[in-house]
Design goal:
Helix content: 10-25%
Protein name: SH2 domain-containing protein 1A-like
Pfam families: SH2
Order of helices and strands: HEEEEHEHH
Strand order of the largest sheet: 4-3-2-1-5
Number of helices: 4
Distance between the termini: 25 Å
Organism: Paramormyrops kingsleyae
InterPro entries: SH2 (IPR000980), SH2_dom_sf (IPR036860)
Keywords: Adaptive immunity, Immunity, Innate immunity, SH2 domain
CATH architecture of the largest domain: 2-Layer Sandwich
Number of strands: 5
CATH superfamily of the largest domain: SH2 domain
CATH class of the largest domain: Alpha Beta
Protein backbone atom coordinates (compact mmCIF):
# COMPACT_ATOMS: atom_id res chain seq x y z
CA UNK A 1 0.00 0.00 0.00
CA UNK A 2 2.67 2.54 1.01
CA UNK A 3 4.52 2.34 -2.32
CA UNK A 4 1.32 2.91 -4.33
CA UNK A 5 0.45 6.14 -2.46
CA UNK A 6 4.03 7.46 -2.16
CA UNK A 7 4.62 10.59 -4.26
CA UNK A 8 8.25 11.21 -3.23
CA UNK A 9 9.67 14.69 -2.92
CA UNK A 10 6.73 17.02 -3.57
CA UNK A 11 5.92 20.19 -1.68
CA UNK A 12 3.10 20.74 0.78
CA UNK A 13 1.46 23.06 -1.76
CA UNK A 14 1.57 20.48 -4.58
CA UNK A 15 0.23 17.87 -2.18
CA UNK A 16 -2.73 20.09 -1.33
CA UNK A 17 -3.43 20.73 -5.03
CA UNK A 18 -3.22 17.02 -5.86
CA UNK A 19 -5.69 16.13 -3.14
CA UNK A 20 -7.97 18.98 -4.21
CA UNK A 21 -7.90 18.03 -7.89
CA UNK A 22 -7.88 14.24 -7.71
CA UNK A 23 -9.13 13.42 -4.24
CA UNK A 24 -12.29 13.55 -2.24
CA UNK A 25 -13.10 13.64 1.46
CA UNK A 26 -10.81 11.10 3.15
CA UNK A 27 -8.34 10.77 0.25
CA UNK A 28 -4.74 10.34 1.37
CA UNK A 29 -1.19 10.05 0.06
CA UNK A 30 2.35 10.00 1.41
CA UNK A 31 5.36 12.12 0.52
CA UNK A 32 8.84 12.91 1.82
CA UNK A 33 8.96 15.26 4.80
CA UNK A 34 10.33 18.67 3.86
CA UNK A 35 11.69 19.30 7.36
CA UNK A 36 13.11 15.94 8.50
CA UNK A 37 15.37 13.79 6.36
CA UNK A 38 14.26 10.15 6.27
CA UNK A 39 10.76 10.96 7.53
CA UNK A 40 7.50 10.93 5.60
CA UNK A 41 4.24 12.85 5.70
CA UNK A 42 0.83 11.21 5.60
CA UNK A 43 -1.50 13.79 4.05
CA UNK A 44 -5.28 13.41 4.35
CA UNK A 45 -7.99 15.53 2.78
CA UNK A 46 -10.58 16.49 5.37
CA UNK A 47 -12.55 19.52 4.27
CA UNK A 48 -11.71 22.33 4.43
CA UNK A 49 -8.05 21.34 4.98
CA UNK A 50 -5.38 18.82 4.14
CA UNK A 51 -4.15 17.37 7.43
CA UNK A 52 -0.50 16.31 7.56
CA UNK A 53 0.93 13.74 9.98
CA UNK A 54 4.69 13.15 10.20
CA UNK A 55 5.85 9.52 10.11
CA UNK A 56 9.33 8.89 11.54
CA UNK A 57 11.45 5.97 12.64
CA UNK A 58 10.83 5.12 16.28
CA UNK A 59 12.56 2.32 18.22
CA UNK A 60 13.32 0.31 15.08
CA UNK A 61 9.89 0.79 13.56
CA UNK A 62 7.65 3.55 12.25
CA UNK A 63 5.28 5.85 14.13
CA UNK A 64 3.14 8.91 13.56
CA UNK A 65 4.45 11.85 15.58
CA UNK A 66 2.38 12.42 18.71
CA UNK A 67 2.06 15.33 21.16
CA UNK A 68 4.57 15.42 24.05
CA UNK A 69 3.69 12.90 26.75
CA UNK A 70 1.73 10.64 24.39
CA UNK A 71 3.52 7.40 23.53
CA UNK A 72 3.34 6.74 19.78
CA UNK A 73 2.09 3.44 18.43
CA UNK A 74 5.01 1.74 16.68
CA UNK A 75 4.73 -0.41 13.54
CA UNK A 76 7.27 -2.73 11.97
CA UNK A 77 6.63 -1.44 8.43
CA UNK A 78 5.10 1.59 6.76
CA UNK A 79 2.49 -0.70 5.20
CA UNK A 80 1.47 -1.93 8.67
CA UNK A 81 1.09 1.67 9.85
CA UNK A 82 -1.11 2.65 6.89
CA UNK A 83 -3.20 -0.54 7.12
CA UNK A 84 -3.84 -0.08 10.84
CA UNK A 85 -4.83 3.58 10.54
CA UNK A 86 -7.07 2.78 7.56
CA UNK A 87 -8.90 0.19 9.64
CA UNK A 88 -9.25 2.44 12.71
CA UNK A 89 -7.77 5.92 12.80
CA UNK A 90 -7.28 7.49 16.23
CA UNK A 91 -9.79 10.21 17.15
CA UNK A 92 -7.08 12.83 16.64
CA UNK A 93 -6.52 11.77 13.01
CA UNK A 94 -8.60 12.38 9.89
CA UNK A 95 -9.94 9.03 8.61
CA UNK A 96 -7.98 7.36 5.80
CA UNK A 97 -10.78 6.43 3.40
CA UNK A 98 -9.50 6.67 -0.18
CA UNK A 99 -5.86 6.03 -1.14
CA UNK A 100 -4.73 8.42 -3.90
CA UNK A 101 -2.56 6.05 -5.88
CA UNK A 102 0.24 7.57 -7.89
CA UNK A 103 -0.53 5.29 -10.84
CA UNK A 104 -3.90 7.07 -11.19
CA UNK A 105 -2.00 10.33 -11.55
CA UNK A 106 0.10 9.14 -14.47
CA UNK A 107 3.54 10.57 -15.15
CA UNK A 108 3.64 9.37 -18.75
CA UNK A 109 0.99 11.71 -20.13
CA UNK A 110 -1.63 8.99 -20.53
CA UNK A 111 -4.92 9.05 -18.71
CA UNK A 112 -5.29 6.08 -16.38
CA UNK A 113 -8.09 5.30 -14.00
CA UNK A 114 -10.30 8.15 -15.27
CA UNK A 115 -8.02 10.85 -13.88
CA UNK A 116 -6.08 13.68 -15.45
CA UNK A 117 -2.42 13.01 -16.13
CA UNK A 118 0.44 14.02 -13.84
CA UNK A 119 2.10 15.74 -16.82
CA UNK A 120 -1.03 17.82 -17.41
CA UNK A 121 -1.19 18.69 -13.72
CA UNK A 122 2.41 19.88 -13.69
CA UNK A 123 1.91 21.96 -16.83
CA UNK A 124 -1.31 23.45 -15.50
CA UNK A 125 0.41 24.09 -12.16
CA UNK A 126 1.52 27.42 -13.63
CA UNK A 127 -1.65 29.02 -12.29
CA UNK A 128 -4.43 27.64 -14.47
CA UNK A 129 -7.01 25.48 -12.76
CA UNK A 130 -7.56 21.96 -14.02
CA UNK A 131 -11.12 20.71 -13.50
CA UNK A 132 -11.95 17.79 -11.23
CA UNK A 133 -11.85 14.29 -12.62
CA UNK A 134 -14.74 12.81 -14.60
CA UNK A 135 -15.30 15.95 -16.70
CA UNK A 136 -15.67 15.05 -20.34
CA UNK A 137 -13.86 16.31 -23.41
CA UNK A 138 -16.97 18.32 -24.31
CA UNK A 139 -15.91 20.74 -21.55
CA UNK A 140 -18.54 19.82 -18.98
CA UNK A 141 -17.75 21.88 -15.91
CA UNK A 142 -15.27 24.19 -17.64
CA UNK A 143 -16.02 27.90 -17.51
CA UNK A 144 -15.72 29.07 -21.13
CA UNK A 145 -12.98 31.60 -20.42
CA UNK A 146 -10.89 29.04 -18.59
CA UNK A 147 -11.33 26.51 -21.41
CA UNK A 148 -10.14 29.08 -23.96
CA UNK A 149 -7.22 30.09 -21.74
CA UNK A 150 -6.00 26.50 -21.51
CA UNK A 151 -6.30 26.06 -25.28
CA UNK A 152 -4.38 29.30 -25.82
CA UNK A 153 -1.52 28.02 -23.66
CA UNK A 154 -1.33 24.79 -25.66
CA UNK A 155 -2.28 22.67 -22.66
CA UNK A 156 -5.64 21.41 -23.87
CA UNK A 157 -4.18 18.58 -25.95
CA UNK A 158 -1.96 17.45 -23.09
CA UNK A 159 -4.89 17.04 -20.70
CA UNK A 160 -6.36 13.60 -21.38
CA UNK A 161 -9.92 12.96 -20.31
CA UNK A 162 -11.97 10.07 -19.01
Amino acid sequence: MFRSIYFGKISKEKTERLLELYGKEGSFLTRDSESERGAYCLCVRRTPFVHTYKISQYHGGWAVKTPPGVKPQCFETLNDLIDCYRAAAPDSMAPLLHPLEKRLVSDNGENQGKRFSWVAFLKIDTGLKCPRSHYTEESEGWPLGQHAKIQAHGLYNKCHYA
